[in-house]
Amino acid sequence: MRQSKPQLIINGKRIDGREPQDLRQIKMEVGILKNADGSALVEIGGTKVLAAVYGPREVVPRHQEQVDRAIIRCRYRMLSFSTLGERKSPAPTRREIELSKVIREALEPAILSTQFPRAAIDVFVEVINAEGGTRTAGITAASLALADAGIPMLDLVAAVAVGKIDGVIVLDLNEVEDMYGEADMPVAAMPSLKRVTMLQLNGVLTPDEFKKAFALALEGINKIYQFQKEVLRKKYVEVEE
Amino acid sequence: MSSTPEIPIIPKIKLDTILNVVTKGFHIDKRPLLNYRNIEVVKNVAPNADSSVLVKLGHTQILVGIKVDVGQPFPDNPEEGVLIVNAEYIPAASPSFEPGPPDENAIELARVIDRSLRESKAIALDRLLIIPGKKTWIIWLDIYVLDHDGNLVDAAMIGSMLALAQLKIPYFEVDQVTGSIKIDKSRYTGSLSINRYVATVTVYKVGDVLLVDPTAEEEAIASASISISVSEEGNIVGMQKRGMGFFTEKEIEQAIDISLHKGKELIELMKRFSS
């Protein structure tokens, strides 16, 4: 049962003690699965998302292959126990089908897919624990996994959500803020090239609020991008030793 | 699993022609880039539906129908009525559409329309309640693409908004003893209350040029698009970037300006059609 809306901003601070422009605590790891060609785990606050990449590999079924490029296939899924409350049925929901497409289209502009004609690059995003921002964490993780798999890309893709809660524009919504806030806007971009690859808005913003929120999102994306580069660099230093 | 779609083969000569015309500031049918094609609306095409509207946007045809039903409100939102949006790309509409359950494109279309209507509070869902927490009207809004010649989202939103504006709530009686509800669809209690009109303007990127309302041929060579829903108050009430390409920050700002401007025009047009 939906409770009445809690106060989301108290004395200028958010319910988890953050300032409006703060990210939650971030932890990233790459190469966590043995079998996958690339893998990554991204934790942001209580949200935990695993991404695995296979490929470039042969396309099965064969008729799906494209002669001039690799196809990218993506599946976003929430594990049955990942959400608060009831168990989620493992059958794909309409939301998961949409998000699989949205995540694929967020990654697609970064991948140099024409280098692997007739091949497939498979991206699996599994939400282990959902506390807001699973699609953005999924994109961040998937792009790390793609890099870990050695797939040539123009840039990494980093993503974060911004939103409006109690009239304040904030970065990186958590579950409660997402549920009771006035707007939720996930954004993904290739930070070095300044290209936006995903933009969604669920809620109401005035044009001025949008500008402010969009700028805040790009700032947040840059911070996440620094984490991504650091964790990839660390892995290769370890390999050299 | 979502997979890279098969890109239709477009003869290079056609591709070059379209790009050439678009860079000069025109659609291939000689319209300026930011003009919509002719919009035609036919009301009540399916009299058995509680409301139905056929929208023609150039050669694109979309049929939107509504059936209302009494049921339970969602347990997580007992104070509001229920709106359920569905979309289907029927195989008659294009050689590339196949029979079967709605694919990711149809699901995305339905969810974009659903979110824009819901978040903008375009219709007064709270006034659909019959017995709070127990009984409510459920609005089933179904979108069928009959002929695909580009720009489906914008046409679907026009159709959905007009179908909702036409919708009349049937006469009903609550049995005080059993709590059951008798519906008489030959009489009406009143119209559905519309809080505000919402329009969706999709801005497409063809080459480096931004345009609205492409034909299917132009849409096929667009690298990306962004659907922006605007309310009659000039607020942004929904957004969704689609397609395999990207937008620069500046292009996003331009797209917002375009949609605020064109959205106002579409809303005026819709109001004229529904009066």
Automatic annotation (TrEMBL), chain A:
Domain Exoribonuclease phosphorolytic: residue ranges: 23-152, 155-220
One CC-aspect GO term: cytoplasmic exosome (RNase complex)
Molecular function GO terms recorded: 3'-5'-RNA exonuclease activity; RNA binding
Complex formation: Component of the archaeal exosome complex. Forms a hexameric ring-like arrangement composed of 3 Rrp41-Rrp42 heterodimers. The hexameric ring associates with a trimer of Rrp4 and/or Csl4 subunits.
PANTHER family referenced in this protein's UniProt entry, alphabetically: EXOSOME COMPLEX COMPONENT, EXOSOME COMPLEX COMPONENT RRP41
HAMAP family: Exosome_Rrp41 (MF_00591)
Name under which the protein is recorded: Exosome complex component Rrp41
Originating species: Ignisphaera aggregans
Source species taxonomy: Archaea, Thermoproteota, Thermoprotei, Desulfurococcales, Desulfurococcaceae
Gene: rrp41
